[in-house]
Design a protein that fits this description.
heterodimer, A: mainly alpha, globular, B: Rna Polymerase Sigma Factor, Chain: A, Arc Repressor Mutant, subunit A, 2 domains, elongated
Chain lengths: 73, 209
């Protein structure tokens, strides 16, 4: 069968995943690096891994990125 | 503390300054937080879920609670981002929590209902290819029965089978996001090991799990 289904990806875990607490502690620094194309994944590899696996933290990241990149009305 | 950029330094100076400076900064900051909260509630929800006065109410609560947290923690600001980015993080978290709370007003299924027929749909498994994935799903069910702790099983069932948002589950269980995520992370790792042992999942990349 297809070995790359959402179920297979769900079962994959990466030991570099730092978890929610650490990811959220540094999310403001990480998001600024992403917004400025400054190799965020190299500076914070564990956060990059976590955001790929954690829906809620990824949603927070998306919201914060929108907040700092969308111009104020 | 890292050297602050001029804007961030001004925010910190004002929020720790004289009463007049402090109040002026708080008014300005609250307006910014409210703007972010409104757009974040809209971004995260469908109009059918939260709209109109209720949306504004959630945004106001989020901005007010974020404001309290920021004022309490302003001395912890290290300068590893702009002050406003750091501050926006608080309001994003507040919106996230408040929307998680909203879920329980109209839950689609009970948290502990255990209907395994939902699983293929939850993972987008094509019914036309059931012969290909049926063994994997059956072994997964068996592994959930055999290798997970009661807590891991409770969280797996709520999030995976019943699509309870993680932040909503945090509120229901009186826990925190990190603890729930870690429990599910450990459950995923155990399930994968069990499924590799059964030969229904490849060993490839399992070494890093």
């Amino acid at each position: 069968m297809n070995r790359d289904t959402a179920l297979h990806r769900f079962l994959e875990t990466d030991p570099k995943d730092v978890g929610c607490e650490q990811a959220l502690e540094f999310l403001h620094a990480y998001v600024e690096l992403v917004a400025s194309d400054a190799a965020a994944q190299e500076h914070y590899p564990g956060i990059a891994v976590h955001l790929k696996a954690c829906g809620p933290c990824s949603e927070d990241f998306d919201g914060l990125l929108a907040a700092i990149t969308d111009p104020a009305p | 503390m890292e050297l602050l950029d001029p804007d961030s330094a001004e925010w910190v100076r004002s929020l720790e300054g004289t009463e007049v400076a402090r109040e002026a900064a708080k008014v300005r900051l609250h307006a910014m937080l409210l703007r972010i909260a409104r757009s974040e509630v809209r971004r995260r929800t469908q109009p059918s879920q939260i709209s109109g006065p209720e949306l504004d109410d959630v945004a106001h609560q989020a901005a007010a609670d974020a404001m309290v947290a920021i004022i309490a923690k302003v001395r912890q600001f290290r300068g590893d981002s702009r002050f406003t980015t750091w501050a926006y993080k608080f309001v994003i978290f507040e919106v996230s929590t408040k929307i998680g709370r909203h879920f329980w007003r109209n839950p689609t299924v009970p948290m502990d209902a255990e209907d395994w027929s939902r699983l293929p749909d939850r993972f987008g498994l094509d019914p036309a290819c059931e012969l290909e994935w049926r063994a994997l799903v059956e072994e997964l069910h068996r592994a959930v029965d055999e290798v997970l702790t009661d807590r891991q099983r409770q969280i797996f069932v709520a999030i995976v089978l019943n699509a309870v948002p993680l932040d909503a589950l945090v509120l229901e269980l009186g826990s925190n996001r990190n603890a729930i995520y870690k429990t599910l992370f450990d459950a995923r790792r155990k399930l994968r090991i069990a499924l590799v042992a059964k030969g229904v999942v490849d060993t490839e990349s399992s070494e890093r799990s």
